[in-house]
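In response to reviewer comment 3 from the previous cycle, which asked for concrete evidence that the modeling workflow produces usable outputs, we include below a single protein chain processed end to end. The sequence was submitted unchanged, and the resulting structure tokens are shown without manual editing.
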Amino acid sequence: MIDWSFTLAGALTGFVIGLTGVGGGALMTPILLLVFGVQPVTAVATDLWFAAITKIAGARVHHTNGNVDWQVVKRLWSGSLPMALLVVLLVSMGTHITKVDWLTKGIGIVVLITAIGLLTAPRMVALARKKRTGQPERFETMQSILTVIAGAILGVCVALTSVGAGVLGSVMLLYLYPLRMTPHRLIATDIVHAIPLAVVAGLGYLFAGKVDWWMLISLLLGSVPTVVAGSMLASKITGRWIQIALACVLAAAGLKVLI
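The workflow returned the following structure tokens.
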């Protein structure tokens, strides 16, 4: 049965995803945990598929506008997809991820880190630009391998908590590509990278029967229209002020989950 409260939550999250590239896990998972009281594993499993399907709708708009940096996406995938697949295999082989008591705290920690990442992003970009222009050859030499490593970290975080592909990915890309990643290119690249990552990470939970399908459908009814609207609006305005507000909300949510 459709739950319109989930639809409203999906609409809010979908709009933020389209506008900033952030929110699929960092915003939706805390909402499911704190507002609706969903069990952690069900929240992670359902949110992974919510993020994947919602971002497909948003990615089409960004790809049409030519903002996706496919070279960077492929580098991230080479690290994130194998690590996410490894977690999926562990789940499929019977690892009791559904019973680990640290899952909720793990989500809280990652959400809190994402909030800090959003707030400190401009300072990190300034530092990265200084290194990029001061030691360009060394920076470029390490850029590819660090991107793969960043992808691997994101793969583990997303597979275990559903959080990280958006905001952590954005912060990492800003640091690794300070001159290349314009705001619009960053959002588009981050969204496209997250789609197959969420699908791969969600397979283990899908086969384990942890996805709440009515909840997922309810969320998608709200998110699909609004992610398109947010993606269209992203090319016209800056999302920095929204990121700051989102960071404050995430910080509060992360602390609430931990406490």
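The two ends are 33 Å apart (CA to CA). We consider this sufficient to address the reviewer's concern, and the full set will be provided in the supplementary archive.
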